[in-house]
Each structure stands twice: as structure tokens, then as C-alpha cells.
Amino acid sequence: MILVTGGAGFIGANFVLDWLALHDEPIVNLDVLTYAGNLENLASVWNDPRHLFVKGSIADYDLVAGLLRSHRPRAVLNFAAESHVDRSIHGPEEFIQTNVVGTFRLLEAIRGFLALQDETFRESFRFLHVSTDEVYGSLAPAEAAFSEDRKYEPNSPYSASKAASDHLVRAYHHTYGLPVLTTNCSNNYGPYHFPEKLIPLVIHNALSGKQIPIYGDGMQVRDWLFVKDHCSAIRRVLESGKVGETYNVGGRNELTNLSVVNTLCEILDELRPLPDRASYKSQITLVRDRPGHDRRYAIDAAKIERELNWRPRETFDTGIRKTVEWYLANEAWTENVTSGSYRQWIDRQYQ
Ligand code: NAD
Ligand code: DAU
């Protein structure tokens, strides 16, 4: 049994679905269902006896302590977070509450639980904290990609809150001996990505005939990784990562935002041509830049490749095509998210 937090969100749901497709081991899935939590993502495993969904917060010490006591998971994987940089700029409070206080309470509950277990259980237990490359700050154009020993220089309230959570995880290992692992991954894309983030937003706006907003000059660089490759990296780290270590995860796919958006428009032009054969590119609009916008992220994934023999399966070309195909085949999913009806998924499902 493993306990996953945030498993109704984008990466957490992909992780849960892949895990249950690959393993017999059951999952307890703890998610408070913020706007980003969508039970429709879990529809295919909703009646699977190996999947137990619990609605609740990582910041609820008593709830987490009770789940640990009753299910005795061999690992806790923490995906739960507020994850959108723009939202953190408009309202940082939730980011501190969830990412910092929530992670702290989760660590405390695990510390209390492990104190009551025997040494064999404690030694095999793992807490895996899912974090981001944004904690390292922004790279200059010719600078080397982020390695694990890069100093933390977070620039947004989101990345600062993730950095704080990483530091707490580290401290609980050094002070209390908690068996922790941390992953710092670059930008993910793929199925079930909430359409407030660049790639699903571009697909949705293009298909809806709306403007495709590009912040500033569009020359910011992100290092894109297909979400299922991130999930496979997390499984590798859980299985074989060295306790106390951090692992950077990335696909060596550095691209400017403009080139990502152009690629998306070209794939849509091919797969869903506009009636007048115009290009979706005509909807691209340069808009005001994000305050404090990080210019470039890039991950040096040499450590996880060398030590854990992990490699991504998708290139950007294969992964982005699969992603567009998924969104075209699942327009009802985006419609339910953008209309808000995804929040009544259980009622709709069982009415
Ligand atoms: P998401 O916003 O899509 O999902 C977050 C999930 O956490 C939601 O289901 C939400 O309901 C849940 N949640 C929020 N607060 C909670 C709480 N207090 N208790 C329990 N559940 C709570 O995020 P995502 O993109 O899937 O990211 C998952 C994790 O991966 C985050 O920690 C994020 O920082 C990290 N990460 C994301 C990316 C990316 O590109 N999306 C890249 C690297 C790392
Ligand atoms: O690097 C990992 C991080 O990637 C994760 O930790 C975050 O949770 C995740 O949201 C993502 O952060 P970004 O800020 O890089 O992702 P976002 O999709 O919001 O933006 C990607 C780039 O595109 C960024 O440079 C801002 C730009 N952008 C974004 C949106 C939503 C636009 O130009 N226009 C847009 O409308």
C-alpha cells in the first residue's frame, strides 16, 4: 500500500492511473479537491478496489495520522500543492498554507507514525516529495542547466513556497532521520493538464476561436517533459533512490514559448483544419508579461540517468502530438473543466 497526496490533479492522477496499470499494490489517494482536483481524471479507476479516494487536506494532521495508522503505507508520495505561478502572484496565501504549512503537517504526521513502528518498517519506509525546477530560479542563456547542487533562488511566491517545502523535507531527514527522497522536475505536459497552464490553454483557446496569449516577447525557455515520463522517474526514485538525496528530472527539451505555441498551432492545423484553411497562428497575441517572469529553466538530468538508469520515452515531437490527440479526443473533459461542471463529477456520474 502506498499513500499518494494530490492524486486528483494533473501529475498525481497520471501517476495513480499508471501505477494501477503497472502494479497490484493498492493506493490511498488523499486530495482536498481544490479547483485543480478533478475526480473525472480518476474515472477509469473509480470502482477499482485497489484505489481508495479520501477527500481531505495534507494540512489536517489528525486525518493524515489516522490514514497512516489504519493503512500503514510503505511510502507516502506528496504531489499535493498549489501549482500555478500566475495564481501565486495574485494570491500567495494559499501557496503558503498548502505548500509550506501542509507539507510541514504531513511531515509531522509521518514523524509521529514512524516513531511507533519497528526498525524494519522504518528502514523500508519512504517519503517522496515531488518538487519543481523553479526552486533554482532563472538561467542566463548560456548558463549550464540546473544540477542538484545548484543553489536555491526562487523568484515567485509559488517557487518560494516549494523551496520552503523542500527545505523542510531536507531538515526532517537530517534532524529526525525521516527516510526522504525529493524530485525536482521541469515543466510537464500531457493528458489531464488543467487549461490554465500554457499547453492546454493554447489548445483550448485555439479550438474555441479565442486569442492565444503569449506573455512578453515569448522567448522565455522551458524544458518540457511528457507527464508519463515524470511518473516513471518518480517510480524509479521510489524504488531505487538513495534516502536523503534529491534527483532532478527533465527531458532535455528546451524550447521557447513561441516555438511551443507555433508547434501546437501547426499540429492543430493538420489534425483539425479551420474551414477556411487559415492557421491557428493568426490567433496568437502578445500580452503583458508575467511579473518576475523567469527567463529560462533547464534540467541537467545526468544524476537520475546515471544512478537510476532512468530515461524519458517520449521526445517533445512524439509527446506533444500524443497530447494534442488526447485533447481532441477528450473535448468533453476540457468542456467540463472550463464550464466548472467537473466539480459535480460524482453527482453526474451516479445521478
Ligand atoms: P495540480 O495543481 O494539477 O494538482 C494539485 C492537486 O493537489 C490537486 O488535485 C489539488 O486538489 C490537490 N491539493 C491541493 N492542496 C491540497 C491539500 N492541502 N491537501 C490535499 N490535496 C491538495 O498540480 P500538478 O501540476 O499535478 O503538480 C503536482 C506536483 O508536482 C506539485 O507539487 C507541483 O509543484 C509539482 N510539479 C509540477 C510540475 C508541472 O509542470 N505541472 C513540474 C514539476 C513539479
Ligand atoms: O518548471 C516546472 C513548473 O512548470 C511547475 O513547477 C509549475 O507547477 C507549472 O505550472 C509550470 O510553471 P510555468 O510557469 O513554467 O508554467 P505555465 O504553463 O504557467 O507557463 C509556461 C510558460 O508559458 C511560462 O513562461 C509562462 C508562459 N505563458 C503561460 C500562460 C498560461 C504564456 O506565455 N501565456 C500563458 O497564457
UniProtKB/TrEMBL annotation:
Catalytic reactions on record: dTDP-alpha-D-glucose = dTDP-4-dehydro-6-deoxy-alpha-D-glucose + H2O
CDD domains: dTDP_GD_SDR_e
InterPro entries hit by this protein: dTDP_Gluc_deHydtase, NAD(P)-bd_dom, NAD(P)-bd_dom_sf, Sc_DH/Rdtase_CS
Keyword check for Lyase: yes
GO molecular function terms noted in the UniProt entry: dTDP-glucose 4,6-dehydratase activity
Primary enzyme class: lyase
Entry EC number(s): 4.2.1.46
Gene3D superfamilies: NAD(P)-binding Rossmann-like Domain, UDP-galactose 4-epimerase, domain 1
Cofactor: NAD(+)
Highest taxon of source: Bacteria
This protein's UniProt keywords: Lyase, NAD
NAD(P)-binding domain segment(s): 3-323
UniProt-listed GO biological process terms: nucleotide-sugar metabolic process
Entry-linked NCBIfam families: dTDP_gluc_dehyt (TIGR01181)
PANTHER family: DTDP-D-GLUCOSE 4,6-DEHYDRATASE-RELATED
Family: Belongs to the NAD(P)-dependent epimerase/dehydratase family. dTDP-glucose dehydratase subfamily.
Record's protein name: dTDP-glucose 4,6-dehydratase
